[in-house]
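[#protein-structures] MJ: dropping Bacterial regulatory protein, arsR family here for a structure pass
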Amino acid sequence: MANAGPVCGPISTFSRVQLLHLLFEASAANERPERTIGELCEATGLHPNTVREHLQRLIEGGYVIQATEHRTTRGRPRTLYSAATGAAHASSPIARDKVSAAARRGDLLRRVLPASASALGRDATYQLDALIEHLEESGFEPVVDDEQLTVDLSPCPHAAGRAEDRPMLCTVHLGLMQGVLTEAGGPLAAEAVRTSALPADCTVQLRLTEMTAA
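AK: finished. structure tokens for Bacterial regulatory protein, arsR family:
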């Protein structure tokens, strides 16, 4: 088995994983999707300067969105942070640019190797372009099977981490992948990270949306 690559990208530190997990939870809840620096510090125990630094890196990567609070009362507006999930109301300009650039590079590759296009169609092909570049940026070596709708990421570069951290890590990683697929637009969604007895084994299950499958 090949050695796992370096851990990099949005989940390169557990502190960033914690922050992204909190923002994904807020996005999924029925309450407001944004969080303040103070709320994130209280939930993680991290120093405000550390939280700001991590958030800035995540913003620059297109994974977090920053906005200024709209106030109807007196007082200084707070800065709010939310997860860039790829939905219309939570789309990052940086993430959109990444998706477009991945599609352009994919088109160049397919002109040389036409067989590299996904049998799932044009939109799914562009989704996979964006997903593969995201995963490579994060230190993975993805192998896509568009018949089984799986992405093999073994060996996982996070396998050497603490076992108790893996559930949160996998949840955040799945959320990031789903955000990339949503931003790209198309029939594919990230469904689950398959469980395995071997920490280095990592396979992501994709699915076709019900509308497309129908």
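MJ: nice. The first strand starts at residue 64 and ends at 68.
AK: one more thing. The chain has a mean pLDDT of 89.
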